[in-house]
Amino acid sequence: MALEDTGHRNENMNIRCFYGRLLRKIWLIPLAALIGAVAGFAIYFAANVVYAPARTYEATSMLYLIFTPDETGEVYDYYNGYTWNQLMTTDEIINTTMDNLKEMGITELASGSETPGSVEGGVTRDEVLRSTTASVPSDLRYLVITINNTDKELTKAILTATDNALISYGQKRDEFISINLEREDDEPSLEAITDRTAVAAALGAGIAVFLVIMIMILLDAMDDAIYVPEDAEKRYHIPVLGVLPFDNQELPTRFKNELIACSKKTLGAHSSIAFISVNDTEGSDNSKKCVEDFKDIVKSSFNFERTRIEAMPLPGSTLESYREISECEGVVIAIPAADRRGAMAEHMISQLHKHDCPVLGIIMTKADMTFLNWYYRLPKSGI
Q: Is there a single domain that holds both residue 231 and residue 345?
C-alpha cells in the first residue's frame, strides 16, 4: 500500500453522507433561528429602549420671505438652505433669540455649563443652536424652522423665540420687505420612532442560521471520522470486512452475512490475527469487547480453532506490543463509525507498515444501522 495515497485531508466529500448527517441535525436550524431572533430582539430593545437617548420633541414653523426687488437676483441666490443655517448662528439672530427667551422667563446659561434641559433650569445658546434647523423648500420665499429638544415646553419656547428673531431680522435687513410667520405648531409632537422589532428579530434569525450552517460545514471539513464502509476503503485502501452495530441495535441479516463472508475469505487462511481498536489509548479493553462482539455474530460460521483472534493494544503502547503484533500473521483494525479517530487510524496503519505487519482488514464498530439503512436505501429490517 502506498502510504502517500491514504488520508482524509485530500479526499472528496461524500455529499450523500454529509446531507444525511445534516438532516439528522436539521433541528439545529430552527433552534438557531429562535435563538437568533431572541438575540436580535434583545439587542434592538436594549439599543432603542433601555440604553437609547431620551426621545425628543419636534415643532416646526413656516415663514414667508418677501424680498426687496432686485434685478440681478443675487439676494435670492444668497439665501438658501445652507446660508440660513449659517445665519442662525450669527449674533444678529441668536442674540435676539436669546433675548426673546429671557423675556419668556428662560435664563441664558453660560456657554459650556450643563444644561438642565427644561424651561425652569435655563438654556445655553449652544443648545439652542443644536436644537434649531433651517431649511428651504423648492420655493426660496419659504423658510421652515424645525426645533428638536428633549423638553416639550423648551421646544415650543425656542421655536417662538426663533420665529420672532427672524421677523425682527427681516425688518432690519434691506434685502427684505418683511418676513412673515405663516404657520407655527401649537404643540410640539414627540419624535416618531419606527418599530423595527420584527426586522431585528428576522435579521438575528437569519444571521444565526447562516452561522450554524457555516459552522456545520466547517466542522465537517475538519471531520476525520468515517460513516460508511466505502469511505474507509477509499481513505485507507484496506477492505472493510463488515460492521458491528451499537450495543442497543441488532445487526441486520444482510450486514451479518457480509461480515461472515468477508471474514472467512480474508481471515480464514491465517492462524493468528491481532485485533486492535483505535479507541484503546491505554490497554486493550475496546479491542477485547470488539472481539467478543465479532465472535458472537459469526459464531459457528468461523473456525476459531484454526484462526486465533487476539485483542491487542495499540502499537507503541508498550515496546513489547510491537513484538506481539509482529508474531501474528496479520492485523484487523476496529474503527468506530462517526468517531473522530481517523487521524489516529492513519498513524496506526503507518506504524504497522513500518514494522511489516500486514493489515488484513477494517471492521467498523458502533455503526448506526438506521443511518446505514437510509444511506443504502434499505428497509428498516436491513434485509
A: yes
Residues in the chain: 383
Domain membership flag for residue 47: no
pTM, to two decimals: 0.58
**pLDDT, tens only, 20-69:** 877 778 888 899 999 999 999 999 888 877 776 777 899 999 999 998 88
The answer to whether 157 touches 53, Cβ cutoff 8 Å, is: no
Three-class SS state of 257:
helix
What Rg value do the Cα atoms of the chain yield, rounded? 42
Is residue 181 within 8 A of residue 167, CB to CB? The reply is: yes
- Provide the residue range defining the domain that includes 334: 226-375
Q: Are strands 189-190 and 57-67 parallel, antiparallel or unpaired?
A: antiparallel
- 312 within 8 A of 287, measured Cβ to Cβ: yes
Neighbour tally for 216: CB within 10 Å: 17
Question: Could you read off the pLDDT of 127-178 as tens digits, one per residue?
Answer: 999 999 999 988 888 999 999 998 899 999 999 999 999 999 999 998 899 9
Q: Is 65 helix (H, G, I), strand (E, B) or coil?
A: strand
Domain membership of residue 301 (yes or no) is yes
